[in-house]
Structures are given as structure tokens and as C-alpha cells.
Amino acid sequence: MMYHYHVAVEWDMQLRFTDDVFAPENTCLLDLLERDPTRGVRCLVFIDQGLAQADPALPERIHHWFAQHEDHGVHLAAVPQMVDGGEQAKDGLAVAEQVGRCCLEHHICRHSYILILGGGAVLDAVGLGASLVHRGIRQIRLPSTVLAQDDAGLGVKNGVNAFGNKNFFGTFQPPWAIVNDARFLRLCHPRERRSGLAEAVKVSLIKDADFFSWLAGHARHLLDEHAPHLLEEAVQRCAHLHLQHITSSGDPFEHGSSRPLDFGHWSAHYLEVLSQHRLNHGEAVAIGLAWDCCYAEAINRLSAAECEAVIESLHDMGFALWDPVLNLRDAQGERLVYQGLEQFREHLGGNLTLAMPDGIGRRRDIHSYQRNTGEWALNRLRQLQTRLCRTQATGPCS
Ligand SMILES: NC(=O)c1ccc[n+]([C@@H]2O[C@H](COP(=O)([O-])OP(=O)(O)OC[C@H]3O[C@@H](n4cnc5c(N)ncnc54)[C@H](O)[C@@H]3O)[C@@H](O)[C@H]2O)c1
Ligand SMILES: [Zn+2]
To answer: Please, what CATH class does the domain formed by 191-397 belong to?
Structure first.
């Protein structure tokens, strides 16, 4: 006898854009927290230490905000908890355990919320803890870097690194809500702000030609502190494109092999490793995108002019599109970065699938990668970068 049962799981996620979420009069969070009319609701808050350093008054302001809204039934379960920021937050299960212990001590139940303020790494690690306690406490993410607001914070994934593997332990548990606070963006170091722009270029190239034209048109001003609305607009458009993809692609939990949002990432992940994380994620993605766009030109997916427009935009944003680690070779003379292809193939389960543009704003995957075409593309990238640097001796060329 064979039986088939179908479990349908539906999930709603709220995405909000605000400025200064903990300003006393800001009610963005209040509207998101469902609460019992008699008992109210309790929240446990975790803060990325790097964010707290950039904004030392933040814990105090959080206390103040909750005190201000106490009458509406929102309660802070404990003092905000600090978590070391950056990739070290994802080093094994320590942060997930910290979250678990804290939930136990402060009697966090399935009606409570965990608020996570931080970069993508802290969101991933605390999010994993939140998804494990009582099989999942609702989490509200408040991403605090550009990359976290336009990419990392928006997904349905939580995870940490283990046994030398990125995101080896993880869960799929969508957040209850994501609150993108423009104030956090203004606190970020310019390098971190630039980094998140690479993801905006990535998603525009495979999904939205108008967005790419807009990014290209504003490339030199997106990091201008006197025009913060440009960066905010880039983040908003990018965030929507990411979430639209995740919620409408039909494969939110990544059972298939196609990973459009990983366009340009097969080399990027490996470049980060080869550079021993001297290149941050966005810097490596910019190089990966530039290289793959030259590859797309070689296989007639982009015209020479389109490819040049991409390279020029990334260059204008301040990304260096060549790095010495591209030249590292193994004993057989093979570029080490090509090992990234093998890792990507393995991650997908054996069948290589790489996203490629098909004209700007559209995508069609490829299933094989020709090394000689890769070499042609790398050469083309080198020439374009040299040409751009000849006319401009500052920024990424200096
Ligand atoms: N879950 C997903 O779907 C997903 C998707 C993409 C990336 N990621 C993950 O995201 C991580 C990268 O995230 P990231 O780029 O945000 O970097 P990050 O989290 O490593 O943060 C970078 C640094 O900025 C600090 N910081 C955070 N907010 C700040 C602020 N407002 N001002 C000043 N400093 C601040 C942090 O303490 C850290 O030192 C990676 O671990 C990656 O795997 C996850
Ligand atoms: Zn990325």
C-alpha cells in the first residue's frame, strides 16, 4: 500500500523601510509585533558588536524605545545581548548556543520575538539559534550593513560555518519581518557600503535592465554622503528583486540546481578564500561579475558594449576588478580560482549550473564552462581594467 500526504507550508514575511527605528516616536516595530491584549509580548534583542561600536548609544536607545511603548504591551525580556560581529560569529555553534541559553534564562516562549540587529554574519548565526529554540522563535531581522539590507538579511536561510565549510549547519526558516533602517547604512564604513552595491549590480543584470541603467547612471554618486537617498534607493530596489525572486521562483528551499542569485559567485567565493578574506564578499563578487560578463560576451550573451558598460559601472563605484590572487596557479599551471567551479558543482550535487545574463536584465543558465573561454574573458577583463585606469588614476586604480 502506498500513501501520499501533502504538507503545505505558507509563510508571510514583512519588509519595512524606515529611518531610525528606535526613535521614540517610530512605530514601525510596534506594528510588526503581534501581541496578546492582556499579557503583551516579550522581545529578546541581539546586537552585532560592530554596530554597537559604531553607535554606542544604541542599547540605551532600545531600552528607551521599549519603555516608551510599554503601555502598548511590548516588553524587553532582558538587556540587549552583544554578539561579536563579522565571520567569527559563524564559527561553529557557539552563537546559536548563546541564543539558546539566553532564551532559557529569560523564559522565551513561542509567542516571543527575537530581534537581531547586525551584519549578515550575525543575522545568520543568531537566526540559526532562533530557528532551533522550541523549533523556531519568530525572528525580526534588522540588517545593519548594505549587503545585509539588500541581500543577506532577506533570505529564508540561517547558518554557520563548520568543519572548514561555509554554512555547513543551517536551517530554512524565514524571518517574521525584515526592517531596513537607513540610519544603520549611514554608520557603515565606506568600504562596507560599497561592498553591498555589487549585489545590486548582480541582481539588476539578470532581472532588471532599468535598474542596471539607473545604477550605471548613478555609479559615481551612490556612495556620496551628501546624497544618501541614492544608496537607499539602490538598497530598496535590490531588496525587492531578491525577495521577489525568493518568493516567486518556486524553489525557496533550493532543491533544484539553478541559483540565479549566485550569478558571479562561483569565482567570488573562492577569491575570498584565496585572498584569505582580504577581499570582502562584495569586492570578490564585483570581480566575479566582471569576469562572468566578459565570458557572457564571448558566448554572445552580451554585446561588447553591454559588457563594457558593466565593467565601467563597477569601476565607477570604486571596485578594483583585478586582483593578484587571480594569478595564483597550482603545480600544473592551472589557475587556482578554477577550483571554485568544482566546489560550486559539488555544492549543487554534481550538475554544474551557472547563471549567465542573456542580454542585460535577463538570465539563461549554462551547464558547462570552457576554460579557454574563461581565459579569453579574463584577458578581456584585464584589458578593460587597464584602459579604465589609464584615464583615471584615483579610486580603484591608485
Ligand atoms: N542567509 C543568507 O541568505 C545570506 C546571503 C548572503 C550572505 N550571507 C552572509 O552574510 C555575511 C556577510 O554579511 P555582511 O556583508 O553584512 O558582513 P558582516 O556581517 O561580516 O559584517 C561586516 C562588519 O561590519 C560590522 N558592522 C555591522 N553593521 C555595522 C554598521 N552599521 N556600522 C559599522 N559596522 C557594522 C560587523 O560587526 C562586521 O565587523 C556572510 O557570512 C554571508 O555568508 C547570508
Ligand atoms: Zn553574495
So the answer is: mainly alpha
CA-proximal residue: ligand 1, atom 15 (nearest): 147
pLDDT the model gives residue 5: 94
Of 299, 334, 314, which Cα lies nearest the Cα of 384? 314
50 CA: nearest ligand 1 atom: 37
How far, rounded to the nearest angstrom, does the alpha carbon of residue 113 sit from its chain's CA centroid? 22
Count CB atoms within 10 A of the CB of residue 162.
15
Q: Whose CA is nearest to atom 9 of ligand 1?
A: 120
Dihedral angle computed from the Cα positions of residues 45, 48, 49 and 55, in that order, rounded to the nearest 10 degrees = -80
State what percent of residues in the chain have pLDDT above 70.
Answer: 98
Per-residue pLDDT of 220-270, as tens digits, reads 999 999 999 999 999 999 999 999 998 887 777 777 767 888 999 999 988
pTM above 0.70, yes or no: yes
Within 6 Å (CB) of ligand 1, which residues are found?
A: 48-51, 54, 85-87, 90, 118-122, 124, 144-145, 147-148, 151-152, 155, 157, 184, 187-189, 192, 195, 281
Instruction: Determine which helix (DSSP H) or strand (DSSP E) holds 165, and give its type and residue range.
Output: strand 165-172
Pocket test of ligand 1: the residue of 22, 61, 123, 124 to mutate, having most ligand atoms within 8 Å of its CB, is 124
Structural element, H or E, at residue 60: helix 58-68
Which ligand is located closest to the Cα atom of residue 267? 2
What are the residue ranges spanned by the domains of the chain? 14-187, 191-397
For the segment(s) 14-187, the CATH number from 3.40.50.1970, 3.30.450.20, 1.10.645.10, 3.40.50.300 is: 3.40.50.1970
